[in-house]
Design a protein that fits this description.
Layout (H helix, E strand, L loop, with lengths): L5 H4 L4 E3 L20 E3 L2 E3 L10 E5 L3 H12 L3 E5 L11 E4 L2 E4 L10 H13 L2 E4 L3 E5 L2 E4 L6 E4 L3 H8 L4 E3 L4 E7 L2 E6 L4 E5 L1 E4 L3 H7 L4 H8 L3 E11 L9 E4 L4 E5 L11 E7 L1 H6 L5 H16 L8 E12 L7 E4 L4 E3 L9 H18 L1
Parallel strand pairs: 3-15, 4-5, 4-16, 5-12, 9-18, 16-23
Antiparallel strand pairs: 1-22, 2-3, 6-7, 8-11, 9-10, 13-14, 14-15, 17-20, 17-21, 18-19, 19-20, 22-23
């Protein structure tokens, strides 16, 4: 919910609540695209003159940004995605190694909302995602036992980033580009990156970055920046371990309620994951916050020790280990904003932090910001 005093301060901006808004299905109008061209110090994006066609920049190529891009592109708008990483997918992240692909971000996703379930059905039919039915356990009060959780789970194929790669098909993405400032030159927007280059002009901008990063970019819309700045994001250390021989345990996934860990996954039990016995472990947010500045080696050692205790066995030396710090892993509280919008400026924001830290919510937030943008004209 909106924090006290915030709603009264929002004059021309608004917060979109997906529970209270309805939108018609988007027409599948595909406009042609032209690649970016370098013009002096600025990257100019040539636009096709089409009635009611907007040029839209989306900062962040995680699932929220990709969802917004797909909905807007299918409605005939010209969309340009930007991401600071080399790839895409945000927390739909996989690390490619000589021992196979390791899902170090989101481990799986679920589907509840009808629209998302319809989209999921299409992904399943296309082979972009698959069911994952692991032997699921629960570790609580020092006891390891089978879990009664029967939630249906889905994974990207052949790795979690596989889904985002498929959804990006036909979209224009500028990767390895960190946008650090937005500049309004009425009636257009320009995006300045950390190398001093400008990208534009754009009619609209959607910020699809984690809340703390979004707050800085949303400064031209003070109320939106303040809303994003109030979101507290929690960290999470993720550790991947690969063993030459399979560990002697039936566990393929485990929710952990005690100690340093939060989640254990036998990554190699997922469909499409090739290679030797691989595991991905997520530390709890409390432990991660307390050890946020530890070195990767320190984190790996601590996580290995905790894993051995939970599984009740001595771990052999892994043939590969990796630690990744997700500084903005999940919001501390679930909001129900859906998306943020300042239509008088043509500035918008979306992300799982606008709804709650789940993969499905990222997609829904992207859809919601697209509807808000098109509804505003």
């Amino acid at each position: 919910m909106v924090k006290p005093g915030l709603r009264q301060a929002v004059l021309h901006s608004f917060i979109v609540d997906p529970r209270r808004t309805r939108g018609n299905a988007l027409a599948a109008l595909h406009g042609t695209r032209e690649s970016a061209m370098l013009y002096r110090p600025q990257h100019m994006y040539k636009l096709i003159s089409m009635p009611n066609t907007l040029s839209i920049a989306i900062i962040g190529a995680g699932l929220a940004g990709i969802s917004a891009a797909r909905h807007l592109s299918e409605a005939g708008h010209q969309v340009q995605l930007f991401d600071k990483s080399r790839g895409s997918g945000g927390r739909l992240s996989s690390k490619r190694t000589e021992f196979g692909d390791l899902d170090i971000g989101a481990q799986y996703f679920t589907a509840r909302e009808p629209g998302f379930r319809r989209e999921l059905k299409r992904w399943l039919e296309a082979g972009w995602v698959a069911d994952w039915e692991p032997q699921l356990y629960l570790y609580e009060k020092g006891q390891l036992r089978p879990s009664e959780d029967d939630q249906q789970r889905f994974i990207g194929m052949p790795r979690m980033t596989g889904l985002s790669r498929q959804l990006l098909e036909g979209l224009s993405l500028t990767s390895s580009c960190r946008i650090q400032r937005l500049r309004r030159d009425e009636p257009h927007w320009w995006l300045e990156d950390d190398q001093g280059s400008e990208h534009g002009p754009f009619d609209r901008v959607v910020v699809a970055a984690p809340a703390p990063q979004a707050a800085a970019l949303l400064e031209p819309a003070v109320q939106l920046a303040q809303a994003a700045a109030r979101i507290n994001m929690l960290p999470c250390w993720a550790v991947a371990l690969v063993f030459e021989q399979p560990l002697d345990t039936p566990v393929q996934a485990c929710f952990v309620r005690d100690g340093a860990l939060d989640w254990i996954s036998r990554n190699s039990s997922k469909a499409g994951r090739k290679g030797p016995d691989s595991w991905v472990i997520h530390a709890s947010t409390d432990w991660s916050a307390a050890h946020v500045d530890d070195s990767p080696l320190q984190v790996i050692a601590a996580v290995q020790q905790a894993l051995a205790q939970i599984l009740g066995c001595d771990l052999p030396e892994p043939v590969f280990s990796h630690a990744h710090r997700w500084l903005y892993a999940r919001p501390a509280e679930d909001c129900q904003w859906g998306a943020l919008a300042a239509p008088e400026l043509g500035l918008y924001a979306c992300g799982d932090w606008c709804l709650g830290g789940r993969v499905e919510n990222a997609w829904l937030s992207g859809r919601q910001v697209a509807r808000a943008l098109m509804g505003a004209g």
